[in-house]
Each structure stands twice: as structure tokens, then as C-alpha cells.
Specification:
98 residues, alpha+beta, NE0471 N-terminal domain-like, three-stranded antiparallel beta sheet, two-stranded antiparallel sheet, 4 helices, globular
Length: 98
């Protein structure tokens, strides 16, 4: 089975928790991450100062954060198809307690 390999090439912060993401195949997505920022890994990204430390990892070509959070590039690329399921999954994750 052949699977496309997607690579994030760049991003821009365009609003709170929202990134414009570009891919090597010239696809562009605008993603509001706030609805999926829950649980142990993604929950800390609700701290806007941490969220805005996002970078493109030069080795795996996806968005990464200093706390170890990342997203599979294929999920980001196919966000219009994946978003609903990702939001539903995030609702089941335990809230982060500090």
C-alpha cells in the first residue's frame, strides 16, 4: 500500500492558537488548535507563551513544541478530514492539573 509522506515546510501564527501551515506539496491549512489542546501532552499548550514556541522539526518535518508535543504531519495535512475525530478524542482526555 502506498501512503503519501507529508512534510511541513513552514508556518505562521495568524491568531491565538491558530497557525497557517504550508506543506511540501504546496497544500496550505489554517488550523485552530485550541479545541484539541487537552490531556497530558497537548493540554500544556493552552499556555499561549508555550504554544507560540512552535517550530518545524527539520528531521521529521512537522510542528513540534518544547514540551515534546507534536502532530503527525499527515493529520495536519488532512486536517479537514481528521479534525472532527481529533476533537472527539481530545474531549475524552484527562484535563491537565497543575
Amino acid at each position: 500500500m502506498n501512503h503519501a509522506i507529508h512534510r511541513v515546510t513552514r508556518f505562521e501564527i495568524i491568531a491565538r492558537y491558530t497557525l497557517a501551515v504550508r506543506f511540501a506539496d504546496a497544500t496550505a491549512r489554517t488550523i485552530n488548535f485550541l479545541p484539541v489542546l487537552a490531556g497530558e501532552i497537548y493540554g500544556p499548550l493552552r499556555d499561549l507563551s508555550l504554544f507560540e514556541q512552535v517550530q518545524v522539526d527539520p528531521e521529521v518535518h512537522t510542528l513540534v513544541w518544547p514540551n515534546g508535543a507534536d502532530f503527525e504531519p499527515a493529520i495536519l495535512h488532512d486536517w479537514p478530514v481528521c479534525e472532527k475525530a481529533f476533537r472527539e478524542r481530545a474531549r475524552r482526555w484527562e484535563p491537565v492539573h497543575r
